[in-house]
Amino acid sequence: MTDGPLFDGIEETDGIEVIQANLGPAFPQGMFLAQDGYNYDQGKLQRQNFKMVRWEKIQQLLSKAN
Fold it and tell me: Domain total for the chain?
């Protein structure tokens, strides 16, 4: 994942995970989860964090690539 308008990209991840299950209204089809070793907020280095993306967004991108 790269930098975007809502968050910085993911760098030096120690792991990723895909969960394909209903996780409630925020993630009804599951999620893609990635640990982000470097987290920047307005150019300042912050603690590491996790990025979560709705799984259907990833599926849409994958279907466009085919």
Answer: 1
